[in-house]
Write a structure and sequence with these properties.
The protein is of the alpha/beta class. The protein contains twelve helices and 14 strands. It has an eight-stranded mixed beta sheet, sandwiched between helices. The protein is globular, with a radius of gyration of 20 Å. About 45% of the residues are buried.
Length: about 350
């Protein structure tokens, strides 16, 4: 097996996210509401890519960038700043990068998105996918051809699923779990697709379909079962000062994969993912809110709660000796592009 293969293979739609926080109330038609907080940066599939890369995983991303400022900025952040491999990605002439405006209030948010159908599908981008240790995928009603190819070449598939706007929750979608090593839905999705009335019952059904089943439960934490080891785990959520919940589920998934690649016991994997997701909601923008080793190390070193010290004591042996430099957070607005050897374009104009 090629030891240089990616740790994580990803494909999906990229967005430029603009997140507004600090809203006392949502705006109504004809009303202007000022807010105290804002962050911007790559979103969508970028959430998974950055979260994985910040845990030191070799991350390969196949996506489409628009040939505009937002596309160029997202490409630079992902490849130049975060070290994500974009060899499988393409820039599409004349196609605008999708843009999402998120209005975050409390522990939830409202989203408004502008975007057009990308000119390249996931199968166009992946074709014959490279061998990878894992792939993090979002399964949909229509199966992707590349997924079966990836599973056949030995890539372990970790899958999640989204809200079904039709609310039919077709069980046909679960047939794709035969290709997967792990499935990580949230509680609502899990119960709807399995036709059960509790997360525990849903987990029992999913364990018959996939080796590793994980169900996230928001403020109630997460539960999981690993049929390959016979382990069951249930962990509570951590208290967090929620600024922006965008991308927390993606951070959870990437963190669970990182811990799984490390061969950690199930409870440690689950606690680690819950922690990373909890740390992410304290910052703007899903992708650049990912804590990485730096954020987890900083949390651990500042921890004083005896119960949490015990519950997360495994971090003392899991954290790398060098957690790396501070991670870059989402700017309020993207910096102006620079020219080689010169000031920013904005500076030259004033």
């Amino acid at each position: 097996m090629d030891d240089n293969r990616p740790d994580v293979l990803l494909t999906g739609l990229l967005f430029y996210d603009l997140v507004l926080t600090g809203l006392d109330k949502p705006p109504t038609p004809g009303e202007e509401v000022w807010t105290s907080g804002m962050g911007s940066g790559p979103g969508g599939i970028a959430n998974l890519a950055v979260a994985a890369s910040r845990f030191g995983l070799r991350t390969s991303l196949a996506t489409v960038f628009g040939d505009d400022f937002y596309g160029a900025y997202c490409r630079e952040v992902l490849a130049g700043q975060e070290g994500v491999d974009l060899a499988l990605s393409r820039t599409a002439d004349g196609w605008p990068t999708p843009v999402t405006v998120s209005l975050a209030q409390g522990s939830d948010r409202a989203l408004v998105t502008h975007g057009l159908q990308p000119p390249y599908s996931q199968d166009d981008l992946m074709r014959d996918p490279p061998e990878a240790r894992t792939a993090l995928v979002h399964i949909e009603a229509e199966p992707r051809a590349w997924l079966a190819k990836a599973a056949a070449n030995g890539t372990r598939i970790y899958a999640d699923v989204g809200w079904d706007p039709t609310q039919k929750w077709s069980r046909d979608l679960l047939e794709q779990l035969s290709l997967c090593h792990a499935f990580l839905p949230n509680e609502t999705e899990a119960m709807a697709y399995t036709r059960t009335d509790s997360a525990v019952a849903a987990l029992g059904t999913l364990t018959e379909l996939v080796p590793v089943a994980v169900i996230t439960r928001g403020g109630d934490g997460a539960i999981a079962a690993d049929q390959t080891t016979g382990e069951y785990a249930e962990v509570p959520a951590l208290d967090a000062c929620v600024l922006d919940p965008t991308g927390a589920g993606d951070v959870f998934g990437a963190s669970f994969v990182a811990a799984s690649l490390g061969g950690w016991p199930l409870e440690e994997r689950l606690r680690f993912a819950v922690l990373a997701a909890g740390l992410s909601v304290e910052h703007h923008s899903g992708a650049l809110a990912a804590p990485g080793w730096y954020g987890v190390d900083r949390w651990w070193r500042s921890l004083t709660d005896p119960a949490l010290k015990t519950a997360y004591g495994f971090l003392a042996d899991r954290l790398p000796a060098d957690a790396g430099p501070p991670v870059r957070r989402a700017p309020v607005t993207p910096p102006a592009p620079r020219t080689p050897g010169g000031p920013t374009a904005a500076a030259r104009q004033h």
